[in-house]
Write a structure and sequence with these properties.
Elements lengths: L1 E4 L8 H13 L6 H17 L4 H5 L2 H10 L3 H8 L9 H8 L4 E6 L13 H8 L4 H12 L3 E8 L6 H10 L1 E4 L9 E4 L2 E4 L3 H10 L5 E2 H7 L7 H13 L3 E4 L2 H21 L8 E4 L4 E4 L2 H11 L5 H14 L5 E2 L2 E2 L3 H25 L4
Antiparallel strand pairs: 1-3, 2-3, 4-7, 4-8, 5-6, 9-10, 11-12
Helix pairs in contact: 1-2, 2-5, 13-14, 14-15, 15-16
Length: about 375
């Protein structure tokens, strides 16, 4: 697995990044530290942009990208953009560097990278099919999508499965819905922007998986027979939902059972720790073999549930006692809730929402 900044997506912004890094290196005192130097560099570039440089006039997308950059955590910015070896590269350069290790490109590592209909127009898809060289084709694809970041799988001695074996393997793969059915967005983000998809296939797959039980793609196909949903449509829907993180790959039952004692112990430790800190906002699922987002207050709800409190109002009171002892308060719409009544009301609302939507999912994922 290799993830890396790529051209041509960074071509327009690269000079701005150079100015930021050079300002931090030469214009700010060392005593201000890396974070201080980054802030100073960003302030300088803001003043520079206010002079309406011709570069920005000819590259108008730079302004929005700079705004998005400034909104990110300063520690991330220092790590990502203020180092001495920031070199976005073309796909062909990465392929050349990995060739001595006998590694060949396999496929995108991000699911949405496989979804052509949200990344390429029909005309672009047909254009790419005319290019026989795989490396050159990927470079052209990056140009079509103005790709700035790639996530790739590379393999040694690539051998493609026969079509029949591919289809058999796909049909044997299990997936599980990890988002409340009503909260699943039908809008997906690709190189073409926001694309809203409808159709019978997407709704039928979501309705079938709404109980959050793992099913293989073959079982989904069998259940939807007679509804006019082809396997190719099921595969596309699954890829899109995996990319949107509304769906997760599910492990075999034997692997789930083997992992369960370990995830139970880890989750119990994290839930207890949540009383003191919100540092870890994930719990482990033996079904997916990965993490599930569960915020601090909801972890405290789970602790109350484990202690025999069965009603959301009880979970809210237990969480508020912990927060109140530490002088902490809830936020709502960006504002701090000052009174105990306001805090308890907000916690109760969240506990009820948790009981209705996320708790059944956590039970299906065997987090609880």
């Amino acid at each position: 697995y290799v993830s890396y900044n790529t051209m041509p997506g960074w071509a327009a912004f690269a000079p701005v990044r150079h100015l930021l890094a050079e300002h931090a290196e030469t214009m700010s005192p060392r005593s201000s530290g890396l974070l201080g130097r980054a802030d100073s560099a960003l302030e300088f570039v803001d003043r520079l942009m206010a002079t309406n440089p011709r570069f920005v006039a000819e590259n108008p997308g730079v302004t929005n990208r700079l705004k998005r950059l400034k909104a990110k955590d300063r520690r991330y910015l220092v790590h990502e953009f203020f180092n001495g070896n920031w070199h976005p590269m073309h796909f062909s350069a990465m392929a050349g560097w990995l060739e001595p290790a006998k590694l060949q490109y396999a496929c995108p590592a991000d699911y949405l990278g496989h979804a052509d209909r949200i990344n390429l127009t029909p005309e672009q898809q047909e254009f790419l099919k005319e290019i026989p060289d795989a490396t050159f084709r990927e470079g052209v694809r990056d140009f079509l999508t103005n790709c700035q970041f790639r996530r790739d799988y590379w393999v040694k001695g690539a051998r493609k499965l026969p079509a029949l074996d591919q289809a058999t393997g796909l049909r044997a793969q299990s997936v599980v819905l990890t988002t409340h059915r009503a909260d699943v967005s039908l809008t997906f983000h690709g190189s073409l922007g926001e694309v809203t998809l409808g159709g019978a296939a997407l709704g039928a797959v979501l309705d079938l998986l709404a109980d959050h039980q793992p099913r293989t793609l073959g079982q989904i196909e069998a259940s939807l027979q007679g509804q006019g949903v082809a396997f190719a449509q099921i595969r596309e829907v699954v890829v899109l939902l995996l990319g949107a993180e509304d769906l997760a790959i599910a492990q075999a039952e034997a692997a789930t059972l083997k992992a369960r004692p370990h995830t139970d112990a880890l989750n119990a430790h994290l839930i207890r720790k949540a009383q003191a800190t919100g540092e870890v906002v994930c719990l482990a699922s033996p079904v997916t073999g990965g993490g599930v987002n569960v915020g601090r207050c909801r972890q405290m709800f789970l602790l109350a549930l484990s202690l025999g409190k069965t009603q959301p109002a009880e979970w809210a009171r237990a969480a508020w006692r912990v927060l109140e002892l530490q002088g902490q308060k809830m936020l709502k719409d960006g504002k701090t809730l000052e009174t105990a009544e306001e805090n308890l009301a907000e916690l109760t609302r969240d506990a009820q929402d948790f009981a209705q939507k996320q708790l059944p999912i956590l039970k299906a994922l065997r987090v609880v």
